[in-house]
Specification:
The chain is α+β, with helices and mostly antiparallel strands and 427 residues long. The protein is built from twelve helices and eleven strands. Pfam families: DUF455 (PF04305), Rieske_4 (PF22543).
């Protein structure tokens, strides 16, 4: 034990002595101001990370009417005193004592940071994921439970709640099933609230995937079955990321207010729910086709390059729309003719049909990005074209490269003045 620092040894001994300490994870996993930690008995806890790099914990349900404190705001009252404010009725609770100025009292828990690991003093076992929910969802996907058996509590049944759940779901088949179910419930009016939630820094992925840098992925040219499988596998990987990008734009920007003070229209979220549903359909079609060719998703390496664009634009909705939906999605239209011809040349009609479905849907996705980009610019009195060009130059590496699917882009509403000025000028 001599090689341990004395303070660390003392802290670890105290943790071992008191069996109520629960290790909830590494400090780096809790950058968000509020993180909900789940307990099997329903006594969930919110872990609060304040700007002075301190951690606090209390029951996540407001003792007034059960409001979700994990969606609340942290307010500084001065003199080092901070409170967590319930988003429902604005009851405040002192992070240190749990006392409210409204006369209520919430349960607080001691938190300790030991060698970058966070411990909370509670008898309940805590998890970042709702264990009961995960078990029920797995049964739902297997057909052993109906959707009625996996409903969240009323305070959680919001679009952002489900968006975050889907982002944290590593299995792509389960991600697809949840996406299509949530899309149906939103379209039918069963889910009505957009809500708020903190999306993960990066979506979850299955541990058995081999992840390489984008430039090291071999996509093939479609001349053999193995090469066609590689192309389909690459597209399926892109579609899985596209599902997550759709849910991330919903959750990450749900509370955005325009310069006018107005929130994003309800239709904004409806449009991106549709995009998410389309991408889920695309992944399912591609995964099915890969299976028909005697392979499976995960048999080949994948990359996460597309998520880098999400990270780079996580602070700016206009930048996200410009880069992800008006550059990357539009690029998908550009490469479609050549990709289609490779499969057609080998007589692979089934794959051609899948690619045609993806192409038609992707036109509507570019159109959605363009529609909301121009809407926000007009509301905020910004010039659409110059704003787009500036954002692409700032967040996209290099020039846009031809050939372009002029017809596909035009159908989406993206005429040449949008992208031709971003092509490298002739030397």
């Amino acid at each position: 034990m001599d090689h341990f620092e004395e303070d660390l040894v003392a802290a670890l001994r105290e943790i071992v002595k008191d069996g109520n300490w629960q290790c909830v994870g590494k400090k780096c996993d809790f950058d968000s101001p509020c993180t909900k930690l789940y307990s099997e008995d329903g006594e969930h806890i919110v872990l609060v990370h304040t700007e002075d790099d301190r951690f606090w914990a209390m029951d996540s349900s407001c003792p007034h009417e059960g409001g979700p404190l994990d969606l609340g705001d942290i307010e500084d009252l001065g003199d080092g005193k901070r409170v967590l404010v319930c988003p429902w009725h604005h009851f405040d609770f002192c992070l240190e004592t749990g006392a409210s100025s409204m006369g209520l009292q919430n349960q607080v828990y001691e938190v300790r940071l030991v060698q970058d690991m966070i411990y909370i003093n509670t008898q309940n076992e805590l998890s970042l994921n709702d264990v009961k929910y995960i078990n029920k969802r797995s049964l739902f996907v297997s057909g052993k439970l109906s959707a009625d058996d996996v409903e969240p509590s009323p305070s959680e049944d919001t679009m952002c709640f489900w968006a975050t759940k889907i982002l944290c779901t590593p299995d792509p088949k389960e991600k697809v099933a949840m996406t299509l179910e949530v899309q149906e419930r939103w379209n039918s009016g069963e889910i009505t609230e957009v809500g708020q939630a903190t999306p993960p820094v990066q979506p979850s992925r299955k541990e058995n995937l081999t992840v390489l840098q984008p430039g090291k992925i071999k996509r093939g040219k479609g001349g053999t079955q193995a090469s066609r499988i590689a192309l389909l596998h690459s597209l399926a990987n892109i579609e899985q990321w596209a599902i997550d990008l759709s849910w991330d734009v919903i959750a990450r920007f749900s509370s955005v207010r325009l310069d006018t003070g107005e929130p994003l229209p309800h239709q904004f979220f409806s449009d991106f729910v549709k995009v998410a549903g389309d991408e889920a359909k695309h992944y399912h079609l591609l995964e099915t086709r890969i299976t028909e060719l005697d392979s499976f998703f995960g048999a080949l390496p994948v990359h996460n390059g597309l998520w880098q664009s999400a990270t780079d634009t996580s602070h700016d909705l206009l930048a996200r729309l410009a880069i992800v939906h008006m550059v990357h999605e539009a690029r998908g239209l550009d490469v479609h003719p050549q990709t289609l011809s490779r499969f057609a040349a080998q007589g692979d009609c089934s794959s051609v049909e899948v690619l045609e479905v993806i192409y038609r849907d992707d036109i509507t996705h570019v159109a959605a990005g363009l529609r909301w980009f121009t809407y926000i610019c007009s509301q905020e009195e910004q010039d659409c074209l110059s704003t787009f060009h500036d954002l692409v130059k700032q967040h996209f590496k290099g020039y846009l490269k031809p050939p372009f699917s002029t017809e596909g882009r035009k159908t989406a509403g993206m005429t040449e003045e949008w992208y031709v000025p971003l092509v490298k000028p002739p030397s």
